[in-house]
Amino acid sequence: MRQAYYNGIIHTGKSTIEHSAVLVDGYDVLDIVPENAIPEGFQQIDVQGNHIAPGLIDLQIYGGNGKLFSLYPDVSSLVATEQYCKAGGALYFQPTVATHEPALMKRALEAYRQYRDAGGRAALGVHWEGPFLHPQKRGAHVEKYIRRLQIAEAHELVSYQDALRMITLAPECCDQQAVQILLRAGIRVSVGHSNATYQQAMQAFSETGIRLATHLFNAMSPLQTREPGLVGAIFEHPAVYASIIADGIHVHPACIRISKALMGERLFLITDAVEENTAGTYVYLRQQDRYVNQEGVLAGSTLTMLKAVANCVQLMDMALDEALRMASWYPAKAMGLDHQIGLLEAGYRSGLIVFDERFQLLYRSV
Known about the structure:
The structure is a single chain. The chain is of the alpha/beta class. It folds into 2 domains: 2-53 and 348-364, Urease, subunit C, domain 1; 56-334, Metal-dependent hydrolases (TIM Barrel). The chain has helices spanning 75-87, 102-117, 151-158, 176-184, 198-208, 229-236, 253-263, 305-314, 320-326, 329-334, and strands spanning 2-6, 9-11, 16-17, 20-25, 28-34, 43-46, 51-54, 56-61, 90-98, 126-129, 164-169, 188-191, 212-213, 241-245, 267-270, 285-287, 290-292, 298-301, 352-355, 361-364. The longest helix is centred in the N-terminal third of the chain and has 16 residues, at 102-117. The chain starts with a strand and ends with a strand. The model has no long low-confidence stretch (mean pLDDT 97).
């Protein structure tokens, strides 16, 4: 449906505009025009002075609306997760599967293919978080399924390159040539759940070619006086993007402010959200504003992307425009999709959202 959203504060991702209307047709951004020049044939929506922004992008979420895709990977779980994401402002998402037996992780890829072939557009592809992790940094991941990435398996995974968008791995636990096979196939590789030294991490970035890191600070070797670790390498390498969980629990707000000052547009937001699950390989128990496993280990958030933006503004004293970019344009850049999504510009397929001063979602174009 062709719609014109007007009488709002328009955050394009590059500038802030007023007295204009955003013309969209579902995901497709058609134009931004003066309010008095809205063409005929558009449903006009007066947003009453509220905020208009590109659809947000969540690159790490395990499930939603009562369905845990990470453990029960089927099309219905994907659709439920899409609904959760959209209700929280994310019009695009990357369904994520935690370390598990190979058959289940591959079922997630087949489920994505079925979803896509049935017309699903919101899911960008599957994110495997694991199983190629460092056991000492496994967090809530199940140790018995953790293994080393070998060349033969990397070649096998290339056959899923249409569905497998990203893999989080520990580079010190993987064959470097195997990682490069994935990268050459267009599969994004992200460093995470890693105990890499600073030297190992810089080698992974500068020589192997990895350009992403998963949930900065969490489950990675820290920055210390005599060993800068993975965190130090992420800060220093100018081409590496990192996700961060801005729920005020996974990472202290001051650490997010410091990281933002050091990294600029290389830092972007994710939810790391899960759903409650009381049986099976992964148990997620909700404790107010977080999820823990049966041992009490922090296992996921209750965030939406719009709530993460709100936290950046309210807890980290960030400008709204920049917080929105961290949830839209910057994750698009990290994935090489910034020519397609993440901005409100003619020709983009970002969709749009409208929210109020309390960060409540009012409208979305899809």
